[in-house]
Design a protein that fits this description.
The protein is mostly helical. About 45% of the residues lie in helices and about 10% in strands. The protein has helices at about 1-15, 45-55, 70-85, 90-105, 110-130, 145-165; strands at about 20, 60, 65, 175-180, 180-185, 205. The strands form three sheets. It has a two-stranded antiparallel ribbon with strand order 1-6. The termini are far apart.
Amino acid sequence: MLLFICFCCLLSGCRDQEYLVQRSDLFAPIKRPFNPETWIGPSPSKRSLNTLQRYDLVVWDDSDWIRKYSLDETLVRLQASIQQGTTQEKLYALAELAFLDAQTLLDDDQPHRALERYTLALVNAYEFLFTPRFQHSRNPYDPQFQEICRIYNQSLEQAMRIMAGDKQLRDGTTYSISVGEQQVNVQLRFPPQTQLAELKFVSDFRIQKLLRHHRTFGLGVP
């Protein structure tokens, strides 16, 4: 009898544990504020601003960075520069600016314009991370590499969230997205025989009360 009571207590204790809880800090890794009119403070990264300065898109006036063109024109000019010669610094700057503007548009309740910017960020982050031309120059230990990984992942997730909000995140759906002057048609495909009642995003939840071990890029020293 004593063993049976102990066993029941153990079972009830397990049932009371909540290992999966909903998160309240979505997209925490990238929270830099972005003012669409000026670039004062920690908006784009210093490396992106230096890249923009190199191509005469911003100027430094002893205290603040000042954009020489509208944001749309800045992105267009940066894209044109990439077409003339692609570099990782240009790709990163364009992906970062597009991502930050997408966050602003989303906060302003303009999800479809935000989707265009997320797609622009996604395309350029993908080229930075996966094209063979940069396979020997990509450095996983560079903070820029880690940051563009986050931009890529979060742009993809936010784009999927916007599609889900339009009830378009379904197998066989074709979604049209404008990227600059190009129209991109995205067709969603799930594995055959897939039967999904509801899709949820993993980042909406976090695991608690379990031991976790994180692996991050570092210098390789204790």
